[in-house]
């Protein structure tokens, strides 16, 4: 028998090797974890022995995963994303589950199995999509916000479904109703506690980072045990514990402190999931797995595009949002695992859905990475999903002297300069809150996404004298420069970059100036020192001016993003 420490070390080395391959292939590491589990399982290296310790480890993995997911599922978010996310989220779940159920029946699955599989296929991975959208700088774009909104709707529905399924293990119908009522009663107590008591307690615990860490872990385990006691699962308890704690003003700090545990247990859970794939028992399910995968990769995006078309969004916004549901979620796998645990499903169905997960996660990743290229190739086919009156195209057709693309901390300063130069300037942003704020200040503002050529044309952006883009995405700025060149525009283009290499690329394409925010502070300070030297009066003058500027920015809600990696240097301790 292999020593457990050596056994675990060998598994980690397998994970490392497979993860390197996934990184090269630009795939989410979750696929690498599952493949590592397959390699470490009984069909290949046989490094994972079947014992009670591994089963407990797996349950701990699910619980920690759900606890961390819950921390990012603040109930306040649903209120912010609006009707489109709720309508699209519910509509996609209904249509996907109905089609999935009938597809399951056609493929010969029993009715109960078809229900489980159909429901599992409705959920998309919030974790994976947030990572991919973040990599594309799309979290704040219109389709990104809508996507995250309806993914959160999916997650909340998944919570409710898991509550019911975990209760099925309790036996009789009366006991099931009692368990649900007990859960609702517990939630009725926890909601006011999380809204009014937890924020104050968090202030006390946040005096020490270690204390905050212990508090978060204790809260998660404590609620899990309470939910287990009333007849629900520890997984449901962990998820709800995370949601309740998400209302705390320190939820970001807690999430950061727990990140290593999250990463570790995500690895552990999916490794064990992969090791339990029973290849010998599911060869007859390969064709159904491919059919269901094609339905998820193609059918789900079509459902979302149709719904968003009815809500009068453009074909591009619908297409981009639709691709975010072209895979199944970790919730899908956990849901099927719970079904197996309660005895409602055979173990082979977990392997079946895991294969669908591997195919759809891999496929959707490439679809999202190359979404702009794919859209340009098939946009003419997507016209059927677009209505005549489009919400994003409600823009002014006036010619402006100056145009600012993206209002943020840099854009705030640019507006002050534009105001001195001319009253005829326009601000473009895709955040509804910012648009509303600027409108209240009497500033000309248009709501839309500058990634669309039609939108740029409708703004008559090529007729402006000065164009400033505070959007740091290089591809967006390259699109803008190419559009200006084709339009033979004489506009001054001032753009923003992240890296020095971005600046060189944008200058080569015709940018007149590239803002590199990370270098501006040092440049300004050096010029101040050179001009003032050791004259304290000059520093005092600059200081008074700067304090006035900072106070004004605070009134507008400006603040530099806090870096979670180094929490002990937060503003509270500064």
Could you explain the architecture of this structure?
The protein is globular and about 75 Å long. It has helices at residues 4-24, 29-40, 52-71, 75-106, 111-120, 126-135, 142-168, 173-205, 209-229, 234-246, 251-275, 286-310, 315-323, 330-341, 347-369, 371-378, 409-421, 432-440, 453-459, 474-486, 500-508, 517-532, 536-555; strands at 402-405, 425-429, 445-447, 466-469, 492-496, 513-515. 42% of the residues are buried. The protein has three domains: 1-49, no CATH class; 50-384, Up-down Bundle (Na+/H+ antiporter like fold); 399-555, Rossmann fold. Helix 21 links the parallel strand 5 (492-496) and strand 6 (513-515). Helix content is 68%, strand content 4%. It has 574 residues and is mainly alpha-helical. The longest helix has 33 residues, at 173-205. The protein has a six-stranded parallel beta sheet with strand order 3-2-1-4-5-6, sandwiched between helices.
